[in-house]
Amino acid sequence: MGYIARHMENKILELSKSYSAILLTGPRQSGKTTMLRSLAERENISRKYVSLDDLNIREMAKNDPALFLQLHKPPVLIDEVQYAPELFTYIKIHIDENHNPGDFWMTGSQIFRLMQGVQESLAGRIALLHMSPMSQREITGATCVPFSVDFDRLLCESKNIMPVTTPEMFVRIWNGSMPGIISGQYTDRNIYYSSYISTYIERDVREISDNIDALKFNRFVTAVAARTSQLLNYKALADDSDIDEITAKSWVNILETLGIIFLLHPYSNNVLKRTIKTPKVYFYDTGLVCYLTKWSSPEVAESGAMNGALLENFAVSEIMKSYQNSGLEPYIYFYRDRDTKEIDVIIEGDGKLFPLEIKKTVSPDKRIVKTFGVINKSPLHIGTGAVLCMAEQFGAFDRDNLIVPIWII
Q1: Segment 8-20, tens digit of pLDDT
Q2: Which terminus of the chain faces fewer neighbouring Cβ atoms within 10 Å, N or C?
């Protein structure tokens, strides 16, 4: 199948006209380098490519950043730049002296540790983007738009996107969204994920934290996967992995740093005092969740105990990717209070809150949207709500509450 175009391509080219440096972060194997190298081939300039995965090159970048930049003159694509944060100061000096848009394209597989070096030295000079594994829109060739509950847009899109049945949706969920699998480069999904964990995750974990027990860490990642779409419970994760809670917190932080998981934080403000503080945990790639939790086929995943959690994880991660691919910050939360009233997702935008509930059903019950009333006390207006489900077509309960098939996200 070869290279599949990514939604972020236009954003990169657009930002390259105004920013001297662009840093694209995201998990290993999500397609960052492939996309940037493909874009570089289409540019009218000869952009050099250099990877800090090469230990000799990394050594030079760390010990003599000035010489490194003389040898690898811009325009340049520097891969895995997190290995040499020493470069950032020298890149800053180069940018301040030359002001050439598009001089530095960089990738990094670690998100937050990377940001510290960036924020100290390149604040205001760099465009930061995050790239996840592929979205269903990228895989199916649909257009790139941040998800919203805009009636007219959803109606229009529902006519242009092929409907998907529940079994077909679980094939998507089970296969996952890694470019290597989607493109057909790797045909054995089990071998792909097992080597992904042992090669990339374990190696990168060691880079961040030296004394880590690989077996316990594997158990830990599996324990997190078993609780995807749930409230983050450090004690339960620690008990499952035979570690203490402090280690569990630090390992969650590592998985987040490596772009494997993301946390959805609860929506709260001064008026809604009864809301809980605990975040929910999701994976960017549902294929990895299915692999870790040992669902042997899409059919078993669909009928198994985790089917609702898998579908919710898929829907939430697709919403996240739709914002990231548009180069936008996602303002996405969930709601839960001490009376266990709950809303799966709240999108905040334009001074409004848009509540979403996610259900595996094909024909949702109107009573589902009753819970949306719990955020009435919020100072922000409540916008259109929606039930994201497996409906065969786009519909609505009424003007304020839509029925949105998950295949549209």
Answers
A1: 999 999 999 999 9
A2: N
Per-residue pLDDT of 90-146, as tens digits, reads 999 999 999 999 999 999 988 755 666 777 788 788 999 999 999 999 999 999 999
- DSSP code per residue over 174-232: HH---HHHHTTS---HHHHHHHIIIIIIHHHHHHH-SS--HHHHHHHHHHHHHTTTSB-
Q: For residue 215, which amino acid is it? A: L
Distance CA 258, CA 203 (A): 11
Helix residue spans in 227-335 (DSSP H): 234-241, 245-257, 286-292, 298-303, 307-324
Cα 320 → chain centroid:
6
Which long-range contacts (C-beta less than 8 Å, at least 24 apart) are formed by 322-325? 322/135, 322/137, 322/144, 322/145, 322/146, 322/147, 322/409, 323/146, 323/147, 324/8, 324/129, 324/130, 324/131, 324/132, 325/6, 325/7, 325/8, 325/11, 325/131, 325/135, 325/137, 325/138, 325/144
Residue with the two structure tokens 């509540």: 355
Parse the chain into domains and list their residue ranges: 9-130, 136-408
The rounded distance, in Å, linking the Cα atoms of 227 and 224 is 5
Superfamily assignment of 9-130 in CATH? P-loop containing nucleotide triphosphate hydrolases (3.40.50.300)
Identity of the amino acid at 385 = G
Pairing state between β 342-349 and 352-358: antiparallel
Residues in a beta bridge with 356: 345, 386
